[in-house]
Amino acid sequence: MSDDLGRQCRTIWARNVARFWPTSDAETFLAD
C-alpha cells in the first residue's frame, strides 16, 4: 500500500514538474 502510494506521488510530482517548468528550470531545481 505505502509503496504504491509513494510511486503514485512521485509520478504525479514528475508530471507537474514537466508541465509547469521548462526542462532547464526543472534541472536547476533538482540540482539544488
From TrEMBL:
Descriptive protein name: Uncharacterized protein
Taxonomic lineage of the native organism: Eukaryota, Metazoa, Ecdysozoa, Arthropoda, Hexapoda
Native source organism of the sequence: Allacma fusca
